[in-house]
Amino acid sequence: MHVIADCGVGLRSHRLSDKLGDKKGAAEMMYPYMTLADETEITHSHLMEKDGEQRVEVHFERPTQTGFASARCVLPSYQWKFIEGFTGEETAFFEEFLQHNAHLLYRYAAQGGLRFA
């Protein structure tokens, strides 16, 4: 069972050029959303539009002994771009998490991340 540890503050940049097919190696800006008790960090993109549909990409990343487990899901289709190092049970948890948090992820993506006073 995963327990929420805290919400992040500030911006995060992921270099995922190999996974996303970007041969230029450009960094992609992701905004922090939450850190789970097992150290999985959840970040999200800004609000994007493709083919008339508003989309948000959500990234999951956890340190491992050999690097990082990582996965990325595109909302609203809930299509996984990649999953590396997470189990099927963990991925199922992430999908349920996304179903319960999609409305907030869209709101924060439209604002450019969480706002703190």
Any overview of this molecule?
The chain is α+β, with helices and mostly antiparallel strands and 117 residues long. It is 24% helix and 42% strand. The protein is built from two helices and eight strands, in the order E-E-H-E-E-E-E-E-E-H. The chain has helices at 17-20, 88-111, and strands at residues 4-6, 12-14, 28-36, 41-44, 48-50, 53-64, 67-75, 79-84. Strands 1, 2, 3, 4, 5, 6, 7 and 8 form an eight-stranded antiparallel sheet that branches. A hairpin with a 2-residue loop joins strand 6 (53-64) and strand 7 (67-75). It is globular, with a radius of gyration of 14 Å. The N and C termini lie far apart (31 Å).
Name a few traits of the molecule.
117 residues, alpha+beta, 8 strands
Short description:
This protein has 117 residues and is α+β, with helices and mostly antiparallel strands.
DSSP strand count: 8
Return the structural class.
alpha+beta
Please mark out the parts with pLDDT under 50 across 5 or more consecutive residues, or reply none: 1-26
Distance between the termini: 31 Å
Radius of gyration: 14 Å
Mean pLDDT: 82
User: What composes the largest sheet?
Assistant: 8 strands, antiparallel
List the helices and strands and how they pair.
Blueprint (H helix, E strand, L loop, with lengths): L3 E3 L5 E3 L2 H4 L7 E9 L4 E4 L3 E3 L2 E12 L2 E9 L3 E6 L3 H24 L6
Antiparallel strand pairs: 1-3, 2-3, 3-4, 4-6, 5-6, 6-7, 7-8
